[in-house]
Inverse folding.
């Protein structure tokens, strides 16, 4: 019996009919909810053209929305790179055979996973200057907070991905004389990153949205500029929030689409890792190609 047969049983005629009915019912319920929201907004005059007119003017975009979006994307991009690096380093540290590496790495990861991101930003921006005795950059307060929290979550994801790689992969690599650092770098981490790509992308989406917390410490990101500043100048907070929400959805959808393209590309071109200057047995190559596919 195949794994698919165990995990999923294809629905029969009655189940298909029931699923179709439930789909129609929930679809109608969703349409009803959307219409109810629309009607309530219409009663309060939230669809009046005057409230949406500022978004048809170029100055609204060039003075508020675009600068806020650029600040959001800038902080998110730097935090993504640092979070991925943090996650890989500390996941490897948690898997170390040396207790003096494994225990501190685990303590760091668990601590920053447990502390709310907003408190991290607050402490870095307001508390860290007392330690370093100089003002803290708002940009780096946001980036460091995002890195510590999301990097800790990614560290656990990478660790789970590394442990999920079949043990035969590493055993075959050790058999041809590869060192542990080579096995980790050439065999385990690449396959873990590939298998955990959906989790990584999900966390990157969370990271992009979490940049909005920067407005608490006055970081000029999209929520600050696109909602607070626009609403303060035009008195249309609901409309501004809807526009910013759509922008966040488009950005995260583009990020998800990019990740899907990368996943398909790596599956097509996936090859077994190969140690430089050392032959790789046929068994290891076949296993690696199977994992890549």
């Amino acid at each position: 019996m195949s794994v698919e047969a165990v995990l999923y049983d294809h629905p029969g005629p009655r189940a298909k009919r029931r699923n179709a009915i439930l789909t129609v019912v929930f679809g109608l319920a969703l349409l009803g909810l959307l219409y109810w929201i629309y009607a309530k907004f219409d009663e309060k005059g939230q669809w009046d053209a005057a409230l949406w007119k500022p978004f048809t003017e170029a100055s609204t975009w060039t003075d508020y929305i675009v600068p806020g979006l650029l600040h959001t994307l800038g902080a998110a991009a730097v935090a993504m790179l640092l979070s991925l690096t943090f996650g890989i380093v500390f996941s490897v540290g948690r898997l170390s055979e040396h207790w003096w590496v494994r225990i501190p790495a685990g303590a760091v990861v668990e601590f920053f996973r447990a502390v709310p991101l907003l408190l991290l930003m607050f402490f870095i921006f307001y508390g860290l200057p007392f330690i370093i005795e100089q003002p803290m950059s708002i940009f780096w307060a946001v980036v460091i907070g995002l890195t510590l929290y999301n990097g800790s979550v990614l560290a656990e994801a990478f660790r789970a991905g590394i442990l999920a790689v079949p043990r035969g992969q590493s055993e075959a690599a050790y058999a041809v004389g590869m060192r542990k650092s080579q096995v980790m770098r050439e065999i385990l981490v690449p396959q873990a990153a590939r298998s955990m790509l959906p989790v990584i992308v999900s966390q990157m989406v969370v990271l992009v949205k979490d940049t909005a917390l920067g407005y608490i410490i006055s970081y000029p990101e999209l929520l600050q500029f696109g909602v607070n500043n626009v609403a303060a100048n035009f008195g249309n907070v609901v409309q501004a929030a809807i526009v910013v929400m759509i922008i966040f959805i488009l950005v995260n959808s583009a990020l998800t689409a990019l990740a899907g393209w990368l996943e398909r590309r790596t599956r097509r071109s996936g090859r077994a890792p190969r140690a430089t200057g050392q032959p790789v047995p046929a068994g290891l190559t076949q296993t690696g190609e199977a994992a890549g596919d």
